# Entry
Amino acid sequence: MKTILTRIGLATVAIIALLMVQTVSAASLVVGGKGFTEQLLLAEITGQYLTAKGYSVELKTGMGTSLVRKALENKQVDLYWEYTGTAFLTFHKNSFANQPAQEIYEAVKAKDAKSNIIWLNASAANNTYALAVRQADANAKGIKTLEDLAAKLNSGEKLILGCNIEFYKREDGLKPLQKAYGFEFLRSDVKRMDTGLVYKALKDGDVDVGLVFATDGRIPAFNFTVLKDTKNYFPAYAITPTVRKETLDANPDLAGQLNKLSALFDDATMSALNAQVDVDKKSVTEVAKAFLKAKGLL
# Structure
């Protein structure tokens, strides 16, 4: 009997040890994400990469901004990619006064650290508002910055702006932008329309300048040039991995791995990835896999 009990005890210890090894070798992570193309891509790229690194990854995407943030705070997700401007203005209710991108990043990083939410390295991808023109016009007319645009308008050149109604009316929209750069579109030269229609209007020549989001896939697909905001009028929305501190403490390699991903993204890269989904109609899974393979990460 003693021998049998000894064997049972050894077997139990072996099973427990095996389970412990499996847990250590396949730490579970929940990667959150919002519901639009860019966020779906970021979550999928992160999920595939971390899976290749030995983690067991579950994706929870399709959430709104407030919901995914709450999910992080409530430990329902371990990490997701957030925008610095969103945290600065929406979560922490700061006022934007042309603070540079680094100052916004440092502010949200310090504030969220008190809640055990860690902002890792910000990527160079900045999905902020921007004004864009057709690339051919940018080259022919020498318009590469908002200051160039101001100079053209002030010289008497007639240009038509396409923007959504919200940007036209909001207190931090078109009017203060014009004041900051010293130009003004005539009321009759502003065509107000839905955000999605601005891209087509600019592409088709119905407007000369369009309000866009800087990492939208239609910018490279339609050969637009984003005008550089030299005065930091638009707040920075740097795409950045945010992670629960508890998750980082339990997975010592995770911060380095996510920072490696973050270093791969800039406006052009993100726009090109978005375009493959929104314009070329490839699947998010397919685009993520190809991207990681091209970077030697799969």
In short: The longest strand covers residues 56-63. The radius of gyration is 24 Å. DSSP finds 15 helices and ten strands in the chain.
